[in-house]
Fold this protein.
Amino acid sequence: MKLAHIQIQTNNIQQTLKFYTTVLGLSIVKNNEETLSIQAGNSILEFVENPQFNSIYHFAFNIPENKLDEAIEWCKNKVDLIFIEDQNVITNFENWNANAVYFYDNNGNLLEFIARHDLNNAQNESFSSKSILNISEIGIVNENPLALGKELIAKHNLKFFSKNDNSELFAAVGDDEGLLIIVKPNRNWYPTQTPSQSNKTQVRIENNEIQSELFF
């Protein structure tokens, strides 16, 4: 499953434009007073202006599976990576065979670079903004993660992520290319103490060459 396009909210579209183009070095697809679309590898990340918005999202970007250390160096003068423990910024997801680092954007959104070692996406080039391959995760907040997951699976021919221990608190739908991370409200977004909140989110997925629009 691929996350072709996600649409989320921002209360400062100009500062968001500055962060994603100047700090992360991504390209603009569309920009006006109300919307901003950014090319993130093979995905589109769209922000919609909402001056009253006062919450955050969590989403992740896939990077080449052999480039996490280079990504950390690349981030050093750009963003503050979040320490997990003992001055370490790397999270090891053993069951997922992946490693990740976390940081914030200008909106306070929790972003993640994740290297998934079961994907055949190693690169020889030095890490840069071009190494951001696609949006690999978007967090969805719902009172019943398992029930929503089952509904999405039935309606769009999807699957629960086989590497995840799906539960009433946390469920993942999709695969290494793209995941809907479904959590209950007020569950802290790992690795922070920030509780999850349900925010308007639109996602276009591609699964078996079929596109579907999802509204949360």
Remarks:
- The radius of gyration is 16 Å.
- The chain is about 15% helix and 35% strand.
- The domain at 2-215 is CATH 3.10.180.10 (2,3-Dihydroxybiphenyl 1,2-Dioxygenase; domain 1).
- Helices lie at 13-23, 68-75, 145-156.
